[in-house]
Amino acid sequence: MSVDAVVLAIGRSGELRAGGTDVTARQRIGRVGLPLVDLSEVPGLRGIQWRPDGSARVAAMTTVAEIAADRRLRAAYPALTATAAALATPQLRAAGTIGGNLLQRNRCWYFRNPRFSCFQTGGTGCPARDGLHLYSAVVDLGPCVVPHPSSLAMALLAYEGTRVEVHGRGAIPVAELYGDGADPTRDHLLARGEVLLAIELPAPTPGEGAAYHRAIGRAEAEWPLVEAVARLVLDHPVGLAGAGASEMIIRSAAVAVGGVARTPLRLTEVEDALVGRPASESNLLAAAEPATLRCTPLPQTTYKVALLRDTVVEVLERAVAHACDIREHARRSD
Ligand SMILES: Cc1cc2nc3c(=O)[nH]c(=O)nc-3n(C[C@H](O)[C@H](O)[C@H](O)COP(=O)(O)OP(=O)(O)OC[C@H]3O[C@@H](n4cnc5c(N)ncnc54)[C@H](O)[C@@H]3O)c2cc1C
Ligand code: SF4
Description:
This protein is an alpha+beta fold. Helices cover 31% and strands 16% of the residues. The longest helix has 31 residues, at 303-333. The chain starts with a helix and ends with a helix. Bound molecules: flavin-adenine dinucleotide and iron/sulfur cluster.
């Protein structure tokens, strides 16, 4: 079946099935578009291609497990592969695809319960806002308050210039898949019948250290309360080649968080506070603090304000350690 045939088969009401881990769960509660059209036999939607500039193109049906395990991808995009390796469970990573991960529906318990109606199911209100919203947003972007579910979307946002190829539309910035979060009726902005073909990553940054960290209620098989990725490039101060980790200067930084808002967020204020400064513990702590200024908590999500700051600090510390390891490894192999 070609992609054009898939588009015809979905029509105006159907939905695609990639790994099926999200659609199958929604099928049980009658919250899936029909007909359900399988993407698994469509040629050309799997695998990782490399371009002459060293950048990767990851086809939409590539599984999360394949991304986590790919050594070249791990060297080029460590924040992406660390996130892929940590999300959900081994079984879900083996079945779930990157396309399905980016376009999965939210986890709000009202949305997942057919007895309730809300903006996301054609209704006119948000029962979570005035009801139970312990796992909801702490950065309130609009009428719907469920956090964005995709960990990989957050990781890709940290790679400036990442684009997604949409059949019939060409490549668009990954952030355009989600917009500003103000539309309460949907989790992503692809129209019914639009097929995501691939993710185009930018050329890798040499010497990048990166980390992923999540605050979670149990060890696995759960979405995180707050999650974060950080990508850092460190350099030693002028004339101090043997500097320790805390003296190293942060030359570039990219930080993104998930679990806190209707869209994954890039924390440019944290990045600005990091660049040009030594990677000391106190500087990392001070740089994370401005992230809390974005917070507009709901009554039950005030706990996420401190959790956001602490998750960002932890991911920065881990990224500094990784960047130092990378430098040490490069020095030894010279
Ligand atoms: C217990 C548990 C814990 C989890 N924890 C996490 C977590 O921490 N982080 C996280 O990110 N996820 C988590 N997940 C979700 C899981 O990762 C997703 O269900 C999975 O990645 C979806 O991929 P899939 O291929 O199975 O998608 P499917 O279920 O096949 O599809 C999902 C949606 O995407 C659409 N779609 C799929 N491919 C395309 C395409 N190429 N073009 C257009 N539309 C498409 C489908 O129509 C459907 O609407 C968890 C799930 C469970 C059950
Ligand atoms: S509008 Fe959003 S947060 Fe509110 S009940 Fe529906 S899915 Fe949940």
